[in-house]
Amino acid sequence: MKLEDIMNAPAPASQWVLDQDCQETGQDPAAVRAEMLSRIGVMRESIERGLQSDAASITGMVGWNAKGLWDAPDVLQAPLLRRVQAYAMAVNEENARMGRIVAAPTAGSAGTVPGALIGVADHLGLSDEQLVDPMILAAGIGKAISEKMFISGAAGGCQAEIGSSAAMAAAAVTELLGGSPRACVHAASLALMNTIGLVCDPVGGYVEVPCVSRNAFFAVHAVSAAQLALAQLESFIPPDEVVSAMAEVGRMMPAALRETADGGLAQTPTGLAVTARMESGDVLPIATVAVLNEEARQKS
Amino acid sequence: MSLLDMVGPVMIGPSSSHTAGACRLGLVGHFLLGEPVREANIGLHASFAKTGKGHGTHFALIAGLLGYLPHDARLPRSFADAQAAGMHFEFHDVELGQVHPNSARLRLRGDSATAEVIGSSTGGGVIEVTEIDGFAVRLSAASPTLLLRYEDTVGVIARVTALLAGEQINIATLLCTRKKRGGDALLVIELDALPSAEALAWLRNWREMQWVRLLPKLMDG
Known about the structure:
- The structure holds two protein chains of two kinds.
- Chain A is mainly α.
- Chain A has helices spanning 3-7, 13-25, 29-52, 65-71, 79-96, 112-124, 132-146, 153-156, 158-176, 181-193, 211-230, 239-252, 269-279, 286-299; one strand at residues 100-102.
- Chain B is built from seven helices and eleven strands.
- In chain B, the strands form two sheets. Chain B has a six-stranded mixed sheet with strand order 3-2-4-5-6-7.
- The longest helix of chain B is centred in the first third of the chain and has 18 residues, at 16-33.
- The interface between A and B is large, with 65 and 49 residues.
């Protein structure tokens, strides 16, 4: 499946994507839709937990960002912006606390799709049932991208993860708001071409900094791409060529900037200090923190 | 790969490739050994070695060896559960050559069996197993997979495929590889459905058969 195939499919694009996938895998379309609805429910639960919790992650680098933003005054008077950012960070902070999330397409980028799609839906008062088809299209966009490149920071840098999630989210929001298959795919393409080159440089190797705030930024990026595409703006470079270009940039990227924590933010004085602190064992073992967080959650 | 693998898996954080994918690689080892793991010697390659600790790779691999799925809330406490179950494990760095940066080699020993698996976690929780007991393979656990280890003999593939046809099970892919003529052979068959317990028991009774394992579908789609 190529992006161009989705672009030229009859509307709605999600229906065509679902039919293709079910022909390939032999799954029942109704079962896939039911499972998608259940996953939207898991996403929503992670958003709700994340907005309420300010428990620190194992490294102490994140844990309070989503709640902090959600509880802060809306000084810009931009409720959609704040909602999308807070939802995205809520999911990734739950992920950093070893909570249950839905990878979309990865765990490190798990906040972007729910942040953008559920954020927009809640802003407009739409139901979870209305999100099933857009979510199926999001998955189809991810599938088309993954046929051309590995969707992991280790193989392609952060562009491969957050770029894919933003493209998926952009297409989903576009379909939710009535965009044509062409507009949906161009939204994805616009999101991707404006993510090319982004490196994966997690501090200490943990999926926390910059991952949590990055999901907030790219959830907004996705909504922004949808806005352009819904106004009939298009990606000058054809969508599949954009994916190939991103894959090529991933191949050219030095290993130090592909999740090894050997470059970028991970190698700043502060990044190195955190790494040293973690390695010296000056924190609780990773498993202990998860269990303690779970116990605290059950008590509260 | 299906739609449910792209928006999914439902999993315990923090990383789909380092946690969920690692758990699935452990599950391949769990099903391949076919009995409780007593000793696990785990080699971590490249990014798995470098950033595995921050991503929960170690506890996820052990969780998989215990048979836990990626969304199992017990994932983070797999070390304690493994100790309670009498599993000894150790990790070291390993250089596996030209494989995906997120790769691991599992050398496993149970009470009666041993198994060795090399596999990669290629992103989003998707895995690719590249070697089993020294045989080059390629499987993703996206379908139920039947693995047969036997003495290279005329007619084994024909009889196995006839048995599957008799069960009305379609074959998606089939890979047969052997160490030398008349030597150890491995047959890897990806199926569209699960064979019956009777069929598996029947296969196990064949004179040339060393072992028969069924790897269930581990992907969501």
